[in-house]
Amino acid sequence: MADDLLTAELFRSDPSVVAVGFSQPQPDGRLLCTLCPRGCTLRDGQRGLCYVRGRIGQTMVLTTYGRSSGFCVDPIEKKPLNHFLPGSAILSFGTAGCNLACAFCQNWSISKSRQTDTLADSGDPAAIAQAALRAGCQSVAFTYNDPVIFHEYARDVAAACRHVGLKTVAVTAGYITDTARAEFFASFDATNVDLKAFTEPFYAKTCGGHLQPVLDTLEYLVKHTRVWTEITTLLIEGLNDGDREISELATWIGEHLGPDVPVHFSAFHPDYKLLDRPATSAATLQRARTIAKAVGLRHVYTGNIADTVGGSTWCHHCGTRLVHRDWYQLGAYRLGDGHCPDCGAACAGVWTAQAGTWGPKRLPVRVGPRGG
Predict the structure, then answer these.
(1) Which of 287, 307, 327 is the last residue of a domain?
(2) Nearest 5°: phi and psi at 53?
(3) Residue 365: which H helix or E strand, with range?
(4) Same domain, 158 and 267
(5) Domain ranges, residue 41
(6) pLDDT at position 109, please?
(7) 178 with 203, same domain?
């Protein structure tokens, strides 16, 4: 629990503190948060591990509604999504906090923040949607930290985006309960789920969580929704990159989700509390890609390295290159109708007649007044 106490005065005076659901009274007087599998039980004034959800009186509250760590226009491939509106611009934003405790967090200055100045940009839902339109975006990404923990804010922003014709993307670890899963993902058109490893010990020791809820989320998304889903696994040499684990991960995806779900093996760099491991080599990522393709996955990518082969989209039937990628720069694009022009095989995804031209640019955007 965070040390700072939430107070009734804060509830009355701060518009970023709003009442939320997903709570259940306990026999000992505590309030159980039912949003994520962590199941924090809170006394009055306490926050959960995520930092942004807490209890004031008998009410569960979200303390970051309408406050963001910043807004930026990115290429959609950076999320990463390679089979959803390729080449397009996407407005990205997040808040603070996280419901996992990954020792290797690559966005720890945001997700692990306990400082209010991290949330220095205001973001009314309608204003975010309008900012995305002005920037020429086709979609908005809820990212940097996990949108699960700011579910109610994410839901309202998503509704505002859809109202003006924008798509919505959740970049998430998928660590959410059965109770909340359907309502949360109803807000999104696409998602990239971070499958951090394929062993329970890795999740327990390195992430402070459990593997099964993430697998449950993935099965729910693919089997029970129309949310376009891709998966990312950040490979850390010596921790989650063994041949057997990669083969078991890829086999599970093929058997439970199907061979068309794109999988991204991404490079780790030493950060946060995991500074004693080397940056992931290109050879490790390419080995993982080879293993996953050998067990039958059709679309396997390497990320955070220069690799035009592992970054491009290929026809699973005849092997022709359908989308050429060099980092976040798109070259030849041959998927206007979602089919290979050479053999006619369908390529799963959400394609456009022509690829977008945003390229690798990163453009910071101001949505509301600083400190609003």
Answers:
(1) 307
(2) -110, 140
(3) strand 363-365
(4) yes
(5) 8-62
(6) 60
(7) yes
pLDDT in tens, 299-336: 999 999 999 999 999 999 999 999 999 999 999 999 98
* Lookup: tokens for 20: 């939320």
What are the E-state strand segments in 46-112? 53-56, 59-62, 67-68, 70-75, 89-94
- 8 Å CB contact between 322 and 347: yes
As for how many domains the chain has, the answer is 2
Task: Please tell me whether residues 49 and 181 are part of one structural domain.
Answer: no
Provide CB contacts within 8 A for 277, sequence distance 6+. 104, 236, 237, 238, 239, 268, 270
Over residues 214-230, the pLDDT tens digits come to: 999 999 999 999 999 99
Looking at residue 12, its pLDDT comes to 85
**Over residues 159-170, mean pLDDT:** 98
What global pTM score does this model have? 0.94
Strands 228-235 and 263-267, bridge-based pairing: parallel
One-letter identity of residue 335: L
Reading the block at residue 108, the tokens are 């720890």
